[in-house]
What we know:
single chain, UDP-N-acetylmuramoyl-L-alanine:D-glutamate ligase, 9-stranded mixed β-sheet, 13 strands, Ribo/fructo_kinase, ATP binding, kinase, ribokinase activity
Amino acid sequence: MTSTVLVAGSANLDFVVRAAHVPAPGETVLGREFQTFPGGKGANQAVACARAGGAETRMLLALGADDFAKPIETSLIDAGVQLHTVRDAQLPTGTAFICLSDDAENAITVAPGANMALQPEHLPALGGVQWLLLQLESPLDSVLAYARAARTAGVKVALNAAPAQELPAELLAQLDMLIVNEGELAVVAGNPPDLATGLERLDVPCVIVTLGARGCLARVDQRILLQPAFRISPLDTTAAGDTFCGTLIACLARGGALDRALLAASAASALACTRLGAQSSIPDHAEVNALLADATRLPGADAHAALAAWCAL
């Protein structure tokens, strides 16, 4: 039986300018190169899922009736994603304005546009779907409705709680997996004093916290898994988290164990950080496998020990 993942969420066109550093409030910085890239958390995760291989990937998205929609659709289709597109003639396609610094940091402002047109009734049939992957660049009421429908249909639900916001207990109750970074954990878990407390406060069977260059940790019921990051020289961290999410869910959908999925997702995320752009940076299955097959690049025991010490769980 073919494994199928449905991603429901945002799609944007990213306007990216490179500069020496990200501007401080009130500061004007003279930029350099300018490019546009297909992006948006939902679309990035769908592309990552499709390129990870082994799982049929579908996406529910909303676009405007404008030229900004075309490169987004092309990128998704070229990656092998099957589209369920809501077309809104009143709202423009979502956009994001990104300043990328020379040290690979970024500052992002999103204009959601048509992404806010996704409504509960737009969810396609869930027959054959194993996982539903959600984010928070769409209306929260729709995210909750999709999660409820998936739970009723016996579909597993993963939420990447980004951008960060407080989540109703009713939504958390629908989830099989919650994926957050440290900042998002602080918001969702009510500013816990440490990682252990944050994990304890979230009543979700599996919670994964990404820790940037350190790696990630997962709490599955009462069991803790640690996955150190791969060592790289980052060029652009845009979509690194989305690459992690999409690759992770693809691995789980095709029957992989969580520890193996965390390893593959970390490898894909590391590769994405070495390239410019959002979807343009996401590696395919062969590239990830090549990195995993290179024993000299796998995180060693020292990296595991350092991550464990830093987490202090």
